[in-house]
Amino acid sequence: MQFVVSKQNLQKELGFVQGVVEKKNTIPVLSNILIESVGENTIRITGTDLDVTIRCDMDSEEISAPGSICVQARKLFEIVRLLPDAPVSFKKEDNDWVTVKCDRSKFKMVGVGRDAFPEVPTFKSAPTKISASVLKALIDRTIFAITQEESRYTLSGAKFILDKSGARMVTTDGHRLAYVEKKEVAKNGDRDTLDTLIPRKTLAELTKLTAGFDAEISLGMDENHIYFEVGPRLLISRMLYGQFPNYEMVMPKNNDKSVEFDGVLLNQAIRRVALMADERSHAIRFHLEPNQLVISSQNAEEGEARETIQAEYTGEEADIGFNAQYLQDFLNVMGDGKVAFEFKDGNSQAQLRPADGGDYEYKYVVMPMRI
Length: 371
Description:
The protein has helices spanning 7-17, 73-82, 132-140, 200-210, 247-250, 263-273, 324-334, and strands spanning 2-5, 32-38, 42-48, 52-59, 62-65, 68-72, 88-92, 98-102, 105-109, 128-131, 157-163, 166-172, 176-183, 194-199, 216-221, 225-230, 233-238, 257-262, 283-289, 292-299, 303-310, 318-323, 338-343, 350-354, 361-366. The chain is an alpha+beta fold. The chain folds into three domains: 2-116, DNA Polymerase III, Chain A, domain 2; 128-247, DNA Polymerase III, subunit A, domain 2 (DNA Polymerase III, Chain A, domain 2, Roll), CATH 3.10.150; 251-366, Roll (DNA Polymerase III, Chain A, domain 2), CATH 3.10.150.10.
């Protein structure tokens, strides 16, 4: 195989693909990417860890000998990133080694045979489409609430539902829950309902693929995989299996007390007070009293902190403990604007949401801590 490609295009596509490449080296071939020619002037780059696969198509400047090569993903990315801005030529040698030339630079890389690289599921085109910006917004508003504990398998991704009413994404780690919904977003797929669990790694890669991509994404599913076609790039992911918790049961139904805050001011106050919170529990206290919220924390070894925020609150005094990081995760995503804080008492789950509603129905439920 022999071909020439643009350095800028190659670096961009390698950046997408190497994100999914196996890093633990449990199966050595998975640290490689497959580069092959497709048709007269297209080069296809594929990387996989067997759970998530990314396939990128790019134009070549010349394909003088079609074929395929398999090379170490991380090392190739490091090389290409430092090359001058000039065409990059690849040539496969007889022993599967690959020669890479660019301007005055020349590298020889150890390759592996094409047969060693795993087969990738074939994409079945689907009529269901969703705007890339909508999908990215759903992920950004929920991904932070996915559990980091590998043992909690069904919580290690997002529940994603797409039907004729709209798109919903829900995540939880057992201590908090993020829910976001956008009405009437799917195209052409009104008859098809997608209801699946998407792994966290897949969501993280999707945010990279959808950044700066303004068009629509095509979605498809088979028995084991979900497919996202983002322009010339295709992401294939295994779906998670298992019973996702009944999130509707977690949503508070009788939070009869509500108060609004400036989201940025609340976030900054929590961040300052959290400096003196216990490093393991991140526990802070909300003390609500007429017309103000007092946020406080204390640490037996380092000291304590306290900050007061003015608030239009006329209810009874209440004390609620929270993990400061959980509140900050939501407020960081929400950004500017007013946030509505709704609660019942110090022992029941509280709910935060944008006070103005907006284009998305966005709710964030947090369990209180004992303080």
